[in-house]
Specification:
By secondary structure, the chain is α/β, with parallel strands linked by helices. It has two domains: 72 residues, 434 Repressor (Amino-terminal Domain), CATH 1.10.260; 149 residues, Endonuclease, Chain A, CATH 3.30.870.10. It contains twelve helices and six strands. Strands 3-2-1-4-5-6 form a six-stranded mixed sheet, sandwiched between helices. Helix 7 runs antiparallel to helix 8. The termini are far apart. The relative contact order is 0.11.
């Protein structure tokens, strides 16, 4: 018990998880090394999670649930820790996205998550790790989230998805040429689906482009509309029609000014061939 760090569960989701893990361990009279042996990791790893120095991965939390017989309680609690790497408001948006009947999105700078290949998503998050914006564990969770979001849209009836990409999304290289080639192939596959529309908003639109930041609009099953927009540090869900309807009108204007799907597909094919 010497130099035992006091834990404040109110400090952060990571501290709350660590406090619960320690409490369960103390109740059984196990040392950190003994718990580590049962979970297949080191006592040092247990210590790092308990004190909030390392976030619990989903695999770690699931192993703890198995050892303690807590069902999936720790795994569910660990999600709050991992989601600290996500922009505030985004987890709430993802819940609605999975139930939406229509999705309209506009993205700037990077391919949107719903259209990313796993390799593109991995490369994107690896850069965030390099900049020390997130940990490698958080990067892995973000990549897994992209896959879960895409899987949630494979349902019947399929949601209608309209995607307008700023030209910078397809011009910005992400990793090796093979990664971009596979990503371009994924965009072309997306454009061929019966429930999708893919358009590119070229730089030459200039001031006619109504949005300067990414924006998404959802039509829910009850036909209500929700918009979601992000700044650098947080996302905002808007449900009030007084504010949502002007965004919808601006999105229609964006689609009218953007390249048609056929023109957008031609641009992507030219990029795959390496021609201007």
């Amino acid at each position: 018990m010497v130099n035992r760090k006091e834990l404040d569960p109110e400090e952060s989701p990571g501290a709350a998880f660590g406090q619960r893990l320690r409490m369960l361990r103390d109740e059984r009279g196990w040392t950190q090394d003994e718990l580590g042996d049962r979970m297949g990791c080191s006592g040092t790893h247990i210590s790092a999670v308990e004190t909030g120095r390392r976030p619990p991965t989903r695999q770690f939390a699931a192993a703890a649930d198995r050892v303690f017989g807590t069902g999936d309680r720790l795994e569910r609690q660990s999600r709050a820790v991992r989601q600290t790497s996500l922009i505030e408001g985004f987890p709430d948006y993802v819940t609605l996205e999975a139930r939406a009947s229509e999705i309209r999105l506009y993205e700037v700078g990077v391919i949107p998550g719903l259209l990313q290949t796993p390799e593109y998503a991995t490369e994107l998050e690896a850069d965030a790790v390099r900049r020390e914006a997130i940990t490698p564990e958080q990067a892995g969770e973000r990549v897994e989230l992209v896959a879960r979001r895409q899987a949630a849209l494979v349902r019947s009836p399929s949601p209608l998805i309209s995607a307008v990409l700023d030209e910078g999304c397809v011009l910005r290289p992400m990793g090796a040429s093979a990664i971009m080639d596979a990503q371009f192939a994924r965009l072309l596959e997306f454009a061929e689906l019966p429930n999708t529309v893919l358009q590119i908003a070229p730089f030459r639109m200039g001031a006619r482009r109504p949005f300067s930041l990414p924006v998404t609009m959802l039509t829910l099953a009850d036909r209500s509309l929700v918009s979601y927009a992000e700044s650098a540090h947080r996302g905002h869900l808007e449900r009030e029609s007084t504010f949502v309807l002007p965004i919808l009108a601006a999105y229609h204007q964006l689609q009218a000014e953007a390249l048609s799907q056929a023109e957008s597909v031609a641009v992507i094919n030219q990029l795959r061939k390496g021609t201007p």
